[in-house]
Known about the structure:
Elements: E1 3-7, H1 16-29, E2 34-38, H2 44-48, H3 60-64, H4 70-73, E3 75-76, E4 83-85, H5 94-97, H6 107-112, E5 121-125, H7 132-140, E6 143-149, H8 158-171, E7 177-186, H9 191-204, E8 208-214, H10 217-221, H11 229-232, H12 237-254
Parallel strand pairs: 1-5, 1-6, 2-4, 2-5, 6-7, 7-8
Antiparallel strand pairs: 3-4
Amino acid sequence: MARKFVIANQKGGVGKTTTTVNLAAALAKLGRRVLLIDTDPQGNATTGSGLDKRALARSVYHVLIGLSDVAETTQESPTGGYAVLPSNRDLAGAEVELVDFDERENRLKDALAAVDGEYDYMLIDCPPSLSMLTLNGLCAAHGVIIPMQCEYYALEGLSDLVNTIRKVHGNFNPGLEISGLLRVMFDPRVTLSQQVSAQLAEHFGPKVFNTIIPRNVRLAEAPSYGKAGVVFDPSSKGARAYLEFGAELIERMEKGPL
Ligand code: ATP
Ligand code: MG
C-alpha cells in the first residue's frame, strides 16, 4: 500500500509546493515509486515538475468530478523521476461542482485507490486554504506534513490547521495523523529564526522533523526550469536538505508498520 502524505498549511507561500516537489524528487532518487498529486488550481507543483499546465487535456479536476481516472490522467515528470496528477485553473471550479456529489470529501481518496499498488509514496500538494480541495487531500492521506517558516507569526494559524486535522480525524479519516512539522526557509543568521525553531522543537517534540530546510536561492530558481531543486542543483544546500528529509521520512515510515 502506498504511504500517502498531504503537505498542508493554509498560509500562502510557506513552502508547501517546494516541499512537495523536492520531496517527490528526493524519494524518487532514493528508489521509491512516487505519485505527486497537485490539488492547487495555481498548478505550481505541475509546472515545477516540468509539465505545461496550459496544455493538459486532463487534470485532477476531471478526476474529482468523475470524467477521468487517475491512471489516464497521470503524466511522468520529464525531469523528476516521479509521476504527476497535474492541475491547472480548471480546478478552481471544482469546489462548486463537488457540492452535487455525495461524500464529496472522499472523491480524491476513492480515485487514488485504483492505483494504490503502483506507488510507494503519494504526496498531495494543497492550495493555501482550508477548502474542499484541502479537505479531499486530508481525507486521502495517512499523514500531514506541515511546512513552517520559523518567524514570529508561524504559530499563528497553526491551531486552526491542527483543529481542522482533528475534525477530519474525528469525522472522516480516523487514520489521519500529523506526521510532522518541517522547518523551512530557515535562516541561521536570524536570531528569531533560531528561537522559533527551538520553540517548535520544544513544544512539538518528536512531531518536528530533525531535518531543517535552509533558505536557499537555488530552490527558488529551480521551478522556472521545470525542475525540483534536488534535480536542478543537487549539491546546493537546499537540495541536500531535501534529500536528507526524504531519507528521514523513509527512516520514520519504513521501520515500523504503516
Ligand atoms: P502557495 O500557498 O501559494 O501554494 P506555497 O506554500 O506552496 O505557496 P512555495 O510556492 O513552495 O509556497 O514557496 C513560496 C516561495 O518561496 C516560492 O517563490 C519559492 O520558490 C520560495 N521558496 C520556498 N522554499 C524556499 C527555500 N527553502 N529557500 C528559498 N526560497 C524558497
Ligand atoms: Mg503552493
